[in-house]
Amino acid sequence: MSYSVTKKAVIVTGATRGIGRGIATVFAQGGARVLLVGRDEAAGEATVAELNSAGGDTSFFAADVATRVGCYAFAEEAMRRLGAIDVLCANAGIFPEKRLSEMTDDDFDLVINTNLRSSFFSVQACTDALAVSGHGRVVLTSSITGPITGFPGWTHYAASKAGQLGFMRTAALELAKFSITVNAVLPGNVLTEGLVGMGEDYVSKMAMSIPLGRLGSVNDIGYAALFLASEEAGFITGQTITVDGGQTLPEALDALKG
Ligand code: NAP
Tell me: the pLDDT tens digits for 71-92? Predict the structure, then answer.
């Protein structure tokens, strides 16, 4: 059995690279019509060209998800280009490292605005269209960091990612009357441009802490998002799927020896 998103009108934010690009790829391969959102026009157009040359039906729209105006703009554009919004994958996010002792108000606000306020803005902007769809789906990209684990240097990020889940649970209740489901994927460490930027040492140490022995791929996250967005997941709302290769399972280093 395969999960059906054929012809569905799908928005993926943060799709110019990384996990969002993986989510857009998996949906495009599944036959969905996908609007990719991000700020980097060149990267967005290049991704769209690659997906469409492989048979995809995708296009790119430049918007800043940290602003209300940006989120309403991509929602409007989706209606103009696709005539509907069936699925919103609110994925865009940043994870700059900063110790608490050095964190400024601006550092904190940038991460909260990009990762958490964007969930609020984008869901609000898409709600009417998702309700009309009759089977609207919201899939948030949260993280293991915050909801399950902690990591020095990421207090602002952890707060934003845990905040997304609080938002999700109540949004799921409010939007259930429109048959809209709201769920989240919690990636562990996934090999993306953003993560590679943190250095080889970080990446190889992370791989050693993952029972399945490797970092996640962007498609690993895409498949979980695809399931939550499918018709078949219509009775699941306010829930999370952790996609981390078992990274959050060991209760001590010894547990990793298997
Ligand atoms: P990435 O490679 O750095 O990509 C981030 C994406 O978000 C880019 O497409 C970027 O596009 C977009 N973006 C950032 N700020 C934006 C803004 N203000 N407006 C619009 N788009 C914006 O990061 P990633 O690793 O794929 O992360 C994607 C999501 O997964 C994030 O929410 C992150 O917290 C979450 N996550 C990642 C990991 C991991 O291991 N990689 C683990 C757990 C959770 P532009 O630059 O074009 O704007």
Answer: 999 999 999 999 999 999 999 9
Q: Please report which helix (H) or strand (E) contains residue 175, including its range.
A: helix 155-175
Indicate which atom in ligand 1 lies nearest the CA of residue 95.
34
- Cα distance between residue 16 and residue 145, in whole Å: 23
Inter-CA distances, 123 with 13, 56, 108, 114, 169, Å? 12, 25, 22, 14, 13
Cβ atoms 118, 71 nearer than 8 A: yes
| Amino acid of residue 134 | G
- Please give the residue range of the domain that contains residue 157: 9-257
Contacts of 74 (CB under 8 A, 6+ apart): 11, 13, 35, 37, 61, 63, 65, 122, 125
List the CATH number of the domain containing 240. 3.40.50.720
Number of domains in the chain: 1
Note the pLDDT of residue 2: 66
* Under 8 Å between Cβ of 37 and 11: yes
- Ligand 1 pocket: which residues have CB below 6 Å? 13-20, 38-40, 43, 64-66, 91-95, 114-115, 141, 143, 187, 189-190, 192-195
Mean predicted confidence (pLDDT) in 62-77? 98
- Which of 70-74, 192-196, 212-216 is least confident? 192-196
Give the tokens for residue 52: 């469409």
As annotated, the active-site residues are 157
pTM: predicted TM-score of the whole model, two decimal places: 0.97
Domain assignment present for residue 234? The answer is yes
